[in-house]
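Sample pair:
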Amino acid sequence: MAYLLDLSTEVLLHIIANTEEDKYESRKRLISRLSLVCKRFNTVCGHLIFRSYKLILRSYSGRCLFSGESLDHWKSDAIRARLCHLKSKAAFVRKLRIVDYKAHFPRDDESEEALPVEFAPELLETLTTLHGLVSVIFEGGEGGEPSPFPAALWDWVASVKPNELGFKLALTFPDNLQPISGIEELHMYGFDEEKNRIVTMLQPPILHLVYPWSGKLYKFAPYEGIRSVDIKADILRTEVDPQFFDFTQTPEAEVKVRLSFNVEYKFHIPGVWKEYSRKLPSLFVEDLALWNVRRSDECSIALERLPPDFEGTPAQEHIPDEEKQREEVESMRRHYRFKAWQEEERMRMQSASFAQIKKSLG
């Protein structure tokens, strides 16, 4: 007689992955419970539970599951415990996120850098136990002074050759880095001239760029072989040259651009939208009539270049519409009139309450 547990790991994973979901309980929770049934299921479910692993060195929120301490500062013993846990699950991990949000106010014995160089050997001792990684993402704060990326970590990534690589934090990179082959998808935050050196060296077919939130933006030049590019930038607090976005040399590539203009006060939105929606065509070399242009929320614009065989009418929400703009201005006025009325009512009730208390005290 054959038993369920006699089936191969691949078959069991297929069965678990295709089980019907309970509307009252998430699949992740069900798999976690199943992993507690027996040692065999614990091993099988490990491939699902720990396939994507987030190694947190520091974070602005949350607590360490092993020590119970907050994650906002560098605590060597707790970090070593998390490294030990990662090493114990090395056989299952295929997608790794390494998170380090450097402390706003570091302690005397704490590095001011993200991914501190002095910790790299200890980190690499664990990372070298991971095999078969397909994705490696480094994540942290985007603001403040950039931290130097350890050359030893770059060499480790080059040995892993993941399909997906991400640098989602403020970094500088050393010179004379070795090329990394096989990168299919790259995430690069704080894109500037130095980061362009990395992008140009790797030339991934799929690229995600996030520009800094201030200063003069560096123009990205698409390269041969790029299939998809996704760009995010703020155009309110940065300096952007005319015809900054030029994708004419890659007509077959999928292109998405999200431009934000986040204002400090809500009543500025109509005026800023009016200004930047009219400015938008001057930022692109191509005619935006061949793009979908949508106001994705109150303070951003989502643009997507249409494929050559597109049939239909593209969205052109940046084109001035005086009636809609008047409606938005009036809606904003109603909003602030209501807020003012609420404040007046609050003050009136507060005054009445104070008067009643004063009267009761004689």
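The first strand starts at residue 52 and ends at 58.
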